[in-house]
Amino acid sequence: MAKTAIAYKEKMKEISVLSLICSCLYPETRKNIMGDFEDMDIKPINKRASGQAFEVILKPTSPVSEVAHCITNPPKRDISLEDIQKKLEAAEDRRRSQEAHVLRALAEKREHERDVLLKAMEENSNFSRMAEEKLQLKMEQIEENRMAYLATMMERLQERERHAQEVRRNKELREEVTA
């Protein structure tokens, strides 16, 4: 059955596509057998609206045609130990190359991760330093404002103390004058 199918496929390749197209374009009545091959007949079936139809009739296989269609494998060449060794070495080289490529890719990935981590640490450090500097400036400003406030309060207190002494002195002078 398999050999019949193979023979059928080979014979279908032999049929010219051009002859099929021509038969569809020029539907002249021809003899009932379209083609006559060694192991199959092709007969047209009455024409359909969708195109031309054919009936393929396979003839029983004969021992002669079986031998003709027998596919033989190419002869295997003898492989020497040296050839095997070369192939093994080539495979080993390919494996090493692939391994080196993977290791190189991993090293590049690790390098990139390290660079990203260093950059993040640097940015974090810069942010911390800037925040500390801002805090220091703010603390200095607060200290200066506090000192100015205390100096102003001391000035007012001294002014009141002077005013209080002057009032006391004036009161004593009045009491001495009235006494």
What can you tell me about this protein's structure?
This protein is mainly alpha-helical. The chain has helices spanning 2-14, 17-25, 63-68, 81-178, and strands at 35-36, 40-48, 51-58. A three-stranded antiparallel β-sheet has the order 1-2-3, covered by helices on one side. The protein is elongated, with a radius of gyration of 55 Å. It starts with a helix and ends with a helix. The mean pLDDT is 82.
What does the overall shape look like? elongated
The H/E string reads HHEEEHH
Poorly predicted ranges: none
Mean pLDDT: 82
> What percentage of the residues does DSSP assign to strands (E)?
5-15%
Largest sheet: 3 strands, antiparallel
Structural class: mainly alpha
**Distance N to C terminus:** 156 Å
Oligomerization state: single chain
Radius of gyration: 55 Å
- Helical stretch count? 4
Fraction of residues in H or I helices: over 70%
Q: Quick recap of the structure?
A:
70% of the residues lie in helices and 11% in strands.
Secondary structure layout:
Elements: H1 2-14, H2 17-25, E1 35-36, E2 40-48, E3 51-58, H3 63-68, H4 81-178
Antiparallel strand pairs: 1-2, 2-3
Feature tags:
3 strands, mainly alpha, three-stranded antiparallel sheet, elongated, 4 helices
